[in-house]
Amino acid sequence: MPTILRIGPYRFHFYSREDNEPAHIHIERDDLECKFWLEPVALARNFGFPGAELIRLAELVEINKVTLIESWNKVHG
Question: C-alpha 22: how far from its chain's center?
Answer without folding.
Answer: 12
